Amino acid sequence: MPPIIEISGLRKTYSRAFRQPHHALDGLDLEVAAGQVHGFLGPNGSGKTTTLRALLGLIRVDGGTMRIFGEEVPRRLPEVVAKIGAVVESPQFFKHFSGRLTLQLLAESAGVSKARVEEVLEQVGLRDAAKASVKGYSLGMRQRLAVAQALLKQPQLLILDEPANGLDPAGIHHMRELLQWLAHSQGVTVVVSSHLLSEVQQLCDSMTIVSRGRRIVDGGVADIIAGHGDSSLTVRFPDAASLPEAAEALTAASGSLDAAKSAVTASVDRDRLVVRGAPEPSWVTKTLADAGIYLSELRTEVKNLESVFLELTGTAPVPGRTVQIGESVVVPQTAPAEVSVGDVSVVVESEGAER
Amino acid sequence: MNLFKAELRRLARRRLSLIFGIIAAAGVLVLAGVFWFTSSKGPTEEALAEAQAEADRMNDENFEYEQCIEDEAYLDQPDYEWVESDPYYEGMTREEVCADVFGVWTAEDLIWTYTFDFAEESPLLLIGVAIIAGLVMMMLASSAIGAEWSSGGMANLLLWHPNRMRVWGAKLGAAAAVCAAAVLALMLLAFGLLYVAGAARGDVSGLDAAWWDENLPKFARAALLSVGMTVLGASLAMLGRHTAISGGIIAGYLIVGDMLVRIAALALQMPFSERLSLYTWVTAWIDGRTELYDWTDLYADNAEVMVITASEAGVLLGGIVLGFAALATWAFQRRDVS
Ligand SMILES: Nc1ncnc2c1ncn2[C@@H]1O[C@H](COP(=O)(O)OP(=O)(O)OP(=O)(O)O)[C@@H](O)[C@H]1O
Ligand SMILES: [Mg+2]
User: Fold this and answer.
1) For residue A262, what is the DSSP state?
2) Does ipTM come in above 0.95?
């Protein structure tokens, strides 16, 4: 099946008075396959919202092509818009209308039935708040109204920019189930941009990470996590004095391992020993037991999306210094090789802050 | 079509529409009330008799008049020779001549009665109602569009209707339709109420075919002007993306800009400087024609005359409205919405 969204070489430049023009999108590529929940990640200001706005015809772009359902947008957007539901960054509504009226006006304007309005209000949990005016809505209620607005047309493609923004834990949980249900049982393609990485890890099938207006990596979520950030083992001993000894033993033993494999490193971290590159946890226990050292605890550190994200985008915290906006990694101009779903390609070239 | 209906409903459901509607209807009611209470068909017998007595008393003190009546030769004095030769006084009785020359009080002089003449006075009032209704609708339309921009609702609407020309068309169409309906309704209401006031306490004669022939086109043009103002207000709000900007530009121009332009024209000694004032053109549009006089040539017997007809004024005013509408269309089509 062809991708539902195909974006290639998208550019958007904001000209600034007396300053260099700012390339918000700098040749961005994005493909989203049908029936998936696709995460769209990137540090603040990396161009996610700009991409989604461009895709939905809200802003003009300076180059590149975009297709949704195989139709070129924004030119053919009016033809496909009935199938697209979208929320773009902290949506605002006319304050003096009630939530219900807001939805009813949209429904009426597009010939959607009134019954559907009640349905989505129920679905996002706004049934009882629907007749209050939006002025009195909390952040999360407004977010829910925005999602209701996106669901109203029964879209085949749902584009949500930070939908979890302001939602309470129950709301987030419900949103996750709703999106997964839509994608996996209703065949809806969902694109979510979010900074809640644990959420993305649970929710998304595939993802794209961007930095400074270019794609750094895309592919299946599990593949990306597996392909990055080596796994580590944490080992503790009854007696902290045996730490250096254990480290030495492990390093020595790694020499006898397959040379093709990366070398085992063991470093002392306060009262623990962090072991990287070990083939198996059992290899560690055996090696240490052979050296006459007995461990009290061995834990496999599960790699999570957060560490992968920080590593890939170059925004990992440095002690005593805040990473500034626009300091994330720069992807070289040459586009990364075509990536197919399930297989990961990463082209990262870290360039320090440009200042 | 759906979009147009939704836009109509959006306008109708705004609280401001309700408030303005009530204020406008109340204004018309007050207007009719003023005429109801000030107009009367004439003084009562009693008041008339009282006034007559007072007038008689005052005339008794007017001894010149008394002398004129009593002394046949009084008017032959050299001061009053002109009376004899003035054809105006031919055929008048002596009393009438004396009364006219020396001024006597009558009961009508002492009693103030005002009779509302519907045929005479209502056209101006109705045109005023139409224009004020137009101003109100202009504010309503610009606030509807300005609020949609500043609230962020526009971005949301565009997610549903990416064809911006359709969105703009529906909004403009809805504003113009609501304006036309409101102006028509208010004019009918004002006509009805003023007619009732006139019938009960004034004079409603003279509403013949000629009256309608003369005034109906003026009413129609006033209503059209109101729709034009609404379109202008909506366009400026679309350009400025804010209600206050739109209202400020219009009020600022009408109050300050217009004056500055006229002062500049006077300073440059431009002939027919009034033609630079928007008010001149609006008057010409509604009245059908306006004549401007140029007295700069002090030795000429007659002033130079410039005539502005309704169609010329229509072209100019329509051009201004369409110009701004086109500018707003162009800006909206290209603008980044965020
Ligand atoms: N209207 C604008 N004028 C100038 N620059 C803009 C404008 N909108 C966005 N930008 C710039 O474009 C870049 C991308 O912004 P964008 O909103 O797409 O970021 P984002 O990835 O959505 O960030 P976040 O995670 O904070 O939502 C930023 O550097 C921002 O400064
Ligand atoms: Mg954003």
Assistant:
1) P
2) no
